[in-house]
Structures are given as structure tokens and as C-alpha cells.
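Progress note, sequence design subtask.
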């Protein structure tokens, strides 16, 4: 996730900005840069890689001056490189940006047709061009930024400085965090509290659609429509470590709560509810190619494998093409048959998992089209594939994957709709309904996350259990697998996930009064049958923890514990039902006092055999 730091004061700012960027390293980044208003205008230094690289570049080109902006970039549009690193400078105007401008392609086309020359592949550079163009008519950087922001759509936290207005940094926010830190004789701004907490605990948090100016005397704030805003600073009492976690006890918990935003970011700019279309032309599957597909093979490991299992249901239902899911470690170990009319989809949040990468290389021999679904731009698996559909979850720090899983689900759903439309198996009306339902998911996720207290209480009651069983049918079966995996990873409690229909073929022997059975039972087509499975568990004394749609008939009396899911399109229930399972695993582990963010024996990215 990108980081922003700004300083306006009397001190030489380059070392201050550099140190503040260091405080954001935990968020992950692939390049960094800084722009300072110096004696000769705005000067910039950027580098690909870690901050040490930026330090080396700065020692060759020091940036004297007392007003500046800095950035660490996590690539989303344009690969990690020095040219794509921020700040982007156009006509002496420097811009840093967190977030995504949805309409960057059309704006870029428009700017280029009026002569703008771009030096990067980023969506951010368009803002520098827009501000520069507006400055010639407005004459003021603040008004130019306001005009430019009226042209962009999407999420942003931005900071802008220009040679025409020394001593000031212009900042604005929409759906991406930005905070101003006040001190005597200097003002900071940053995307995250930890960056500037060392200097001040007096902070003003910007709200959506606000535009501010910082200088050495403080902050002046207004709305994008020009209404003055007065906001008292808050006194932040977080320790630096608490601040990194934004007040959450663990990164995993913070990431669980980030999921509504992550889904918004992953679908942003890619769906049109009005036409029922998904914009994914860049994956290299045109209508002819889509119609030629005879089979989709999804590959992944661990949590990504579970996402792929959900993807299989969606692809078969919407694109009407057989889909198979394979564990990448098994696929690479045999000699799979690959047909040129297969579509291979490799799912990997890190994009670096060696089993998935090797599986892609094995599939490559069969000359099928290979698509990567990954969270890290330009990582090894997308590079080895023919096309990539990126999730926009930002870096995930907790080893147990949470937000990357739901982002993968969102991407797979988009892929299924895209293929369905291109193959002619999914009509516009149904697609409009499905995409409309997807757009509602972030708000529904917030409702589920609002039940955390109750889920924590359930976790406490069952935290001393030795084993757990998780059951689900159809779309909820992979969610049962994922719930079991999360629990074992971070609480070290043995857990099994099963398709509920399989229970009578073996696992039912495990059930007694000491076995909590978590049943994922949204009110869908499998609901009546899963009620039958719950009865079977109860008849043998098992304790039943149910997740079901609020108001679903006949289930409450069967459960020892009940967690409500808001009603949604039944196709999309996995995006909601996994959240209570993440929270359950988290709170069981927290109660047991395990090392939640770095569970024993596990690595975040498995690049070894
Ligand atoms: C579980 C988890 C792992 C990963 C697996 C694949 O919480 O994170 O099971 O899902 O190692 O990793 P990626 O998605 O990076 O290929």
C-alpha cells in the first residue's frame, strides 16, 4: 500500500521526510521518491526498490529546501520502476498519490490528444498534467488542484507542490486516508499516523472530499466545493506500534476490517452495472478466444486454492464451461494434459509461490492461454502468464491470508461474469443483477464485521476445544475449508473442513459433545439439506455453531450459537460467510495467546520447495 509524507516548515525537510517514510516500511512498497521546493524550483529524486536505494540517490543529489513531499509506492498501474515511482512532475508541479483513478485511461487519451507527453505508466501522472493544464487558467495551485480533482473519479489521497507557490503543500482526500500533524513552526501530512507520530500527537484527520493547504503555520481546510472546514485536532495516544496497526491489536485483525475497502478497490472501475459488462480486455481473452475455451483449470495453494474452488462454481454457472481446480503442488508433480483450448487461471496473492509458478510452467508446455490472479504487480506468476487480473488488496502483513482471499473472490467473480458475457452464456440483465449485488457487498461486509463482539464471545466459549469440524455445501464448502485452515493456522487447534453431504461417509464418527461443528448455511438452494446435516450433528450431541442468513426459517432452534449473515444474492454469499470464520479463528487464537501475525512454522510467501 502506498505511503505519503509531507512537510512544510523551517527545517531542511529531506531527512525528516525520509525518516517518516521509514516508519511506513511495514506497509510494503516497491519504489520511493521525494520532491522538495529548493532554491531552483522543485527537484525530485526517485528510485526503485527499498529506501536504502533512495538514500543512495539522495546522497548523489541532495534536495535542499524546507517544504517537500515523499512517497513509497506499491505498484497498481505500471510496474515497479524508477519512472513509475512518485512524485510525478509536470511543469514544476510535483504530485504524489495513494489510491486509484478509475477513469485514468480516458483522461490520459484526452490529455495526449491535446499534446501532453507522459513519462510513466501510472494513473497518478494524469493528475500532474491536469493540474498543470488548469493552472494556466486558474493562476492558483489550489484552484488548479480543485479543478483537476473534479475531473478524476476514484479513490485518492494526494499531495501537490509547485514552484509557483513556495512554502505550501496542497493536499486532498477521497476514500484514502490522510492526516495532518501540527507542531510549532512546522506542519506534517501523511497517509498514516505512524509516519509522523514521532513529531506530534496533535492530528487532524481529513474527511472525504476535503482539500487542504499546509504551511509552516498550520492547516487551512475546505471542501472541494469551497466551504471552509474547521476541525479541532485530536490528541493521539497510540504507541508507535499501535499506530502501525491503526489501533487494532494485530495486523490480521486490521486486515479483516479492511475487507470492505479492498473489495471496493478491486471492483472499482471494472464493472458497469448499467450494461452488465466487466472491463477486463487486458487479460487477452476476446470474444472468439472466450468461445473457444473448452475447459478452465484453476491452480493455487492453501487459501488461494480455496478461492479457486469458489471460482469454479461461478465459472461453471455463469460461463457454462467445465472448470477444474488443482492444488498447484500436485499439478506440477504429474504430467497434466493441457489442451490449447484450455484457459489456465493461476491464483496467488503473492504471485511468487513456487508451486504455483512451477505449475504455470508445466501448463505452459500445452500452449493454453494462462491468466494470473495476483495481488503483487509484476510478480513472478503474472510475469510467467499471458495476462493478469490484479486484486487491489494492498500488502497483507498477517501471515494468515484474509483480505487477499476476499479480493481473489471478487476478481474470480468478475472473471466469471466477463467470460459469461463474452461466451454469450450470461445475458445482460442477469449480469446487471449480479454486478449490482457485488457492489452491495462492501456495505454488507461492514454489517457482518459489526458482529465482532458476539463472535469473540463465541470464540471464548469454545477456545479450549481440541478439534473443530467445519461444514458447508456447494459454494459454502470451500468456505468451510477456509474456516478450518484459518483456525488451525493461527490457533493450532486441529480443524477439518468437509462438504456437509460427505459427513455420513466418515467424519460423523468424530461427533460427540466435545466437538464444535461450524456450519456455513446461507439461505440458498442447499439450505434444506444442510438443515438435515445439522440435525445429524445434534442427534450425536455435537455443538452447532451456525452461520446463516438472517430470518432463514427453522435454523435458529437447531443451533447452540448463531451468527447472522445479511441477505445478499446467494451467488455472493462466500464473500460474507468467510468473515465470521476469520473473526472466529482470530479470537480463538487471541484467547489462547498465540503469535497471530506470525504463526509458528509458517511463512508469508512460500518460495521454497
Ligand atoms: C493461508 C495462506 C496460505 C497461502 C498459500 C498460497 O492463510 O496464506 O495458504 O494462501 O501459501 O500463497 P499465495 O496466494 O501467495 O500463492
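Output:
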Amino acid at each position: 500500500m502506498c505511503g505519503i509524507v509531507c512537510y512544510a516548515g523551517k527545517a531542511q525537510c529531506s531527512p525528516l521526510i525520509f525518516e517518516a517514510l521509514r516508519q511506513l516500511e511495514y506497509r510494503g512498497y516497491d519504489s520511493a521518491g521525494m520532491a522538495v521546493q529548493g532554491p531552483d524550483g522543485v527537484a525530485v529524486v526517485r528510485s526503485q526498490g527499498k529506501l536504502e536505494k533512495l538514500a543512495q540517490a539522495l546522497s548523489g543529489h541532495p534536495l535542499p529546501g524546507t517544504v517537500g513531499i515523499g512517497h513509497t509506492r506499491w505498484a497498481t498501474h505500471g510496474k515497479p520502476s524508477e519512472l513509475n515511482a512518485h512524485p510525478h512532475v509536470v511543469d514544476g508541479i510535483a504530485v504524489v498519490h495513494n489510491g486509484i483513478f478509475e477513469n485514468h485511461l480516458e483522461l490520459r487519451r484526452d490529455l495526449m490528444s491535446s499534446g501532453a507527453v507522459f513519462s510513466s505508466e501510472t494513473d497518478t501522472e494524469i493528475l500532474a498534467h491536469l493540474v498543470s493544464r488548469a493552472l494556466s487558467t486558474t493562476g492558483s495551485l489550489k484552484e488548479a488542484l480543485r479543478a483537476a480533482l473534479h475531473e478524476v473519479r476514484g479513490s485518492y489521497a494526494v499531495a501537490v507542490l509547485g514552484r509557483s507557490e513556495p512554502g505550501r503543500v496542497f493536499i486532498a482526500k477521497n476514500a484514502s486516508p490522510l492526516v495532518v500533524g501540527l507542531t510549532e513552526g512546522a506542519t506534517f501530512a501523511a497517509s498514516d499516523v505512524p509516519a509522523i507520530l514521532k513529531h506530534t500527537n496533535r492530528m487532524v484527520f481529513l474527511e472525504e472530499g476535503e482539500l487542504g493547504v499546509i504551511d509552516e503555520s498550520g492547516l487551512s481546510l475546505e471542501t472541494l466545493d469551497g466551504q471552509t472546514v474547521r476541525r479541532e485536532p485530536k490528541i493521539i495516544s497510540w504507541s508507535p506500534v499501535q499506530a502501525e496497526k491503526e489501533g487494532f491489536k494485530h495486523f490480521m485483525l486490521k486486515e479483516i476490517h479492511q475487507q470492505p475497502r479492498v473489495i471496493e478497490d478491486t471492483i472499482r472501475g471494472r464493472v458497469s452495472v448499467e450494461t452488465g459488462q466487466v472491463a477486463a480486455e487486458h487479460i487477452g481473452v476476446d470474444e472468439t478466444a472466450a468461445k473457444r475455451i473448452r475447459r478452465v483449470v484453476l491452480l493455487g495453494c492453501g487459501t488461494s486454492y480455496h478461492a479457486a474452488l469458489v471460482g469454479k462454481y461461478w465459472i461453471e454457472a455463469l460461463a457454462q464451461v467445465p472448470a477444474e481446480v488443482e492444488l498447484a503442488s500436485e499439478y506440477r508433480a504429474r504430467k497434466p494434459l493441457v489442451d490449447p483450448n484450455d484457459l489456465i487461471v493461476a491464483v496467488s496473492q503473492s504471485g511468487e509461490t513456487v508451486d504455483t509458478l512451477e505449475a504455470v510452467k508445466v501448463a505452459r508446455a500445452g500452449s493454453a492461454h494462462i491468466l494470473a490472479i495476483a495481488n503483487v504487480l509484476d510478480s513472478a506468476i503474472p510475469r510467467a502468464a499471458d495476462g493478469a487480473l490484479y486484486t487491489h488488496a494492498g500488502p497483507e502483513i498477517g501471515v494468515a491470508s484474509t483480505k487477499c482471499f476476499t479480493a481473489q473472490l471478487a476478481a474470480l467473480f468478475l472473471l466469471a461474469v466477463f467470460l459469461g458475457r463474452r461466451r454469450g452464456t450470461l445475458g445482460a440483465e442477469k449480469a446487471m443483477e449480479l454486478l449490482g449485488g457485488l457492489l452491495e457487498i462492501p456495505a454488507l461486509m461492514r454489517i457482518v464485521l459489526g458482529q465482532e463482539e458476539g463472535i469473540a464471545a463465541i470464540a471464548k466459549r469454545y477456545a479450549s476445544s481440541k478439534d473443530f469440524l467445519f461444514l458447508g455445501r456447494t459454494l459454502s464448502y470451500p468456505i468451510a475449508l477456509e474456516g478450518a485452515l484459518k483456525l488451525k493456522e493461527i490457533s493450532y487447534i486441529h480443524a477439518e473442513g468437509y462438504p456437509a453431504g460427505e459427513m455420513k461417509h466418515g467424519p460423523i464418527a468424530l461427533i460427540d459433545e466435545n466437538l464444535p461443528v461450524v456450519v456455513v448455511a446461507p439461505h440458498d438452494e442447499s439450505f434444506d439439506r444442510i438443515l438435515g446435516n445439522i440435525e445429524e450433528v445434534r442427534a450425536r450431541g455435537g455443538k452447532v455453531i451456525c452461520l446463516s442468513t438472517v430470518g432463514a426459517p427453522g435454523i435458529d432452534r437447531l443451533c447452540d450459537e448463531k451468527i447472522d449473515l445479511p441477505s445478499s444474492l446467494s451467488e455472493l454469499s462466500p464473500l460474507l460467510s468467510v468473515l465470521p470464520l476469520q473473526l472466529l479463528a482470530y479470537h480463538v487464537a487471541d484467547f489462547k495467546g498465540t503469535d497471530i501475525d506470525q504463526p509458528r512454522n509458517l511463512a508469508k510467501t512460500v518460495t521454497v520447495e
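The chain has a mean pLDDT of 95. Work on this subtask will continue into the next period as scheduled.
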